[in-house]
Amino acid sequence: PDFVAGPPAAIGGSTAASTFTLPSASVAVQGSPASPAWPGQNEALPQATSPGVSPPSAASQPTPLPKTTGKEPAETLLQAAEKELDAGRYAQAHLALSNLRHNPDMPPAQAARVTELLDQLAGYIIYSREHLLERPYTVQLDETLEQIATRYNVPWQLLANINGIRDPQRLEPGKQLKVVRGPFNAVIHLDRHELTLMLSGRYAGRFPIGVGRDYANLEGAYVVSNKTVNPQYYGPDGTQIDANHRDNPLGEYWIGLTHPSGHNSRLGIHGTNDPTNLHTTSGRGSIRLSDKDIKDIFGIFSVGPVASRVTIMR
Predict the structure, then answer these.
(1) For tag attachment on the chain, is the N or C end more exposed, with fewer CB atoms within 10 Å?
(2) Rounded mean pLDDT for each run of 10 residues along the chain, 314 residues in total
(3) How far apart, in Å, do the first and last CA atoms of the chain sit?
(4) Three-class SS of residue 203?
(5) pTM of the full predicted structure?
(6) What Å distances lie between residue 103 and 95, 211, 286, CA to CA?
């Protein structure tokens, strides 16, 4: 998948007085109040910089945010996070807002503001080429991108797209790469028709989904067990549809999910042959994403010894 090197556009209007703006060169994907934010397409975008604004590198992070008791009003915590934003301490603000996102005491206007800020910050902190979470990685002689990605528990495709690398087998020794430490995990809310990505407790984007009716009971905690390009469809009623067939409801990508109990062995996250299947619960399949979104997620989720985990809930 291809990723934007800067953040997605904000969702909705500002409900607070913060003067926060991301560095101007981190061009945002244009959005609207009805379109959630996600890693987009623009692998050629340059590293984000802005005159007078220099986000700290992982090697020079500022003093951590003061510890909270957990009893502070949501408004107080939001104001503290916005001060970090205005001071250019984006990584700290991103983590604080990620922790605040599900605070049950937040009024709707404040909750919308937190989500708006996170939609902007997630792309910049995680998917840009700024080294805000990890120190830059220096490529060693004869090292491949797959070897580096394995060390950080992420797919090599993710690092390739963040860093604009076209040949993962031929890396220039001494070149510095942006790296993130995985795995990415996700929470799927069936009633909201939304998948939310998380990375080490940090909000990493959200995607609209559709829900198929192949399985009645989807709730549970799963592990990403396999990833397949051009999957065949096997329905619970014995129906089988070949890959690339126009009636195949799975689209071009399949991400298989395994439950510890072994049930729903054919449950997965997949594309769709009909974009109108999003935001609904109907038809064949499991968890549907748009063609662009499933391509992105396919390159983000990890399989293997340190696999991504997916929690499905109502």
Answers:
(1) C
(2) 35 33 36 35 28 33 45 81 92 95 87 92 95 97 96 96 94 97 98 96 96 91 96 92 92 92 78 90 94 95 96 95
(3) 29
(4) strand
(5) 0.79
(6) 14, 26, 29
Q: What is the DSSP letter of 67?
A: P
* Cβ atoms of 36 and 297 closer than 8 Å: no
Query: Facing residues of 224 across strands?
Result: 257
Are 247 and 283 in contact by the 8 Å Cβ rule? The answer is no
CA distances from 45 to 25, 56, 60, 298, 305 (A): 9, 20, 25, 21, 33
In order of 10, 16, 223, 311, the CA distances from 76 in angstroms are 22, 12, 36, 30
Sequence-distant (6+) residues with CB within 8 A of 108 are none
Residue 96 phi, psi (nearest 5): -65, -45
Question: Could you give the CA distance from residue 178 to residue 105 in angstroms, rounded to a whole number?
Answer: 36
pLDDT digits (tens, 9 = 90+) for 217-246: 899 999 999 999 999 999 988 999 999 899
Tokens standing for 56? 């700290």
Q: Which amino acid is at 209?
A: I
Closest CA to 257 of 312, 217, 295: 312
What is the DSSP secondary structure assignment for residue 76, as one 8-state letter?
H
Give the pair of three-digit tokens for residue 178. Answer: 């942006």
